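Q: How would the structure tokens look for this protein?
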Amino acid sequence: MTARKGLLERLREGPVIGDGGFVFQLEKRGYVKAGPWTPEASVTHTDAVRSLHRDFLRAGSDVMQAFTFYATEDKLVNRGNKAGETIGVDKINRASSKLAREVAAEGDALTLGGISQCPSYLSGMSKDDVKAEYRKQIKVFVEEEMDFLLCEYFEHIEEMEWAIETCKETDKVVAASMCIGPEGDMHGVSAAECAVRMARAGADVVGVNCHFDPFVSLEALKKMKEGLEAAGLKPFLMCQPLAYHTPDAGKQGFIDLPEFPFGLEARICTRWDMHKYAREAYELGVRYIGGCCGFEPYHIRAVAEELAKERGRFPPGSDMHDAWGKGLEMHTKPWVRARANREYWEKLMPASGRPYCSSMSCPDNWGVTQGDSVLKQQATSTSSEEIAKLKAMQDQKKA
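A: Here is the predicted structure in token form.
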């Protein structure tokens, strides 16, 4: 039997397509609690997680990422979330890894174990303590034979470096993506410098994920690519953005938008937006192309269809779709049949259906994410007069 190709070999040959956003999808389906966003569903609702993996595999995903987002011990017991105590971080991460392996074996997909930022860093714990939190997860991924590791959803390059260093204690390929936009990380480090520091820390693949839409994310990646080229570094590039339009988001992205997290549907990208995203990402040189929050299987299918020529195949899910709406030729209405072509959908400017809805929102610009004690101190020191002034400015922007 021919050995399966690893991540780096596949990236050298062409684009690798990631999967989409598990926490948002499973929250909508009733299996994840908004707020903690933790993955205990891998234990409590195994079939729901397995089913979503299969949907992404059918849509064209080349990687089954274990559902381990925020599954550090300090996060699972944070703010009254008792999942870490009642189930345990080890059990959750092992169950998630096994599900990813199971579904990956149904196709030719790779498996991935991911770690993300943890509360220990924001609370000011030492480098050794933070790295200890990551080792608990990474140990499971190594024992469960995940194909590679991913450090994702980091807002601070320092913590990202610590995470990469911990992953490099193994012999696994390491990818790294930060939840930042073109302005860089939360401490003012530029996107270009973040990319350089990720690569120098040992990441084989670097890029961005979450917090911003596909096109804002690609702007950040352009800066990262320029920085890497200037430094003479050549890691592969990856992009796994939101499926929500965020042209009006501030430095922290969509979490500052008033629609976060329950009113974002009006911002959802169409499948045709994803065709454009996939093409622009590929032409920029991005070779790991996937999605994060808001991405559904049909979004990934659009990415796979746009890059079908480069990949040498269409995804299984295209059997019931036909690229660019070709199946509409069988519709009973002639005006709908006339839409069975690429030109129509590429030129479409979708309407929201909300007559009094503004095109953009006023973000809640809270600033750098910090511990609760710091935020309380800031809130206490802010006078009622200043609060009134800020509210007036916000109302004026909305008007």
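The chain has two domains: 8-322, 329-398.

Confidence is low (pLDDT under 50) at residues 372-376, 378-383.

Upvote if useful.
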